[in-house]
Amino acid sequence: MLDADFFRRWMTGMAAAVDREADRLTELDSAIGDADHGANLRRGFAAVVKALEEEPSGTPGSLLVLAGRQLISTVGGASGPLYGTLLRRAGKALGDAAEVAPVQLAEALRVGVAAVAQLGGAKAGDKTMLDALEPAVEALAESLGESFAAAADAADQGALATVPMRARKGRAGYLGERSVGHQDPGAASAALLVATLAAARGAR
Length: 204
Description:
With about 200 residues, the chain is mainly alpha-helical. The chain has helices spanning about 5-30, 35-55, 60-75, 80-95, 100-120, 130-140, 150-160, 170-175, 185-200. The protein has one domain (about 5-200): DhaL domain (Serine Threonine Protein Phosphatase 5, Tetratricopeptide repeat, Alpha Horseshoe), CATH 1.25.40.340. The protein has 9 helices and no strands.
């Protein structure tokens, strides 16, 4: 079972990973976006950690909702609303339980990813964060929530698969063929989110 401490480890781990990888994410974004993805996410997840420190108690669901709310209020551009929606909807799907089973987390993340797709009007193959998130959630669901490492591997592969794609959404979508040959920064950061989830579980 996964308790509130697990979700704190996940969010704290993501903040550390984003801090470490912010320059790489911004470099990816400079090729096909606004060159601010790394800086925006660094600010957002730092705010998440601060908010969690000020909220010592809580359930898995309430912690994800809190994290999502912080991202929406502190991250500029599209990534704040998208990541915030992912975590908030997943948190709401988990409800008020003090502990959740891995399979429940897998289903909650599926709900969150579907909300991201609806908000952004995107689908797999559009060269967005969904290209990492969707295969990760599918891998986790197929294992009944047990293989976090498989989810992380699927996210990594999905992010790399965006390189030859032509972007169809967001700022990169305006570049047309010029977006081909560049990894999507949102997919790269989404892979980090899944990698830190696996690390919190001890799978990486």
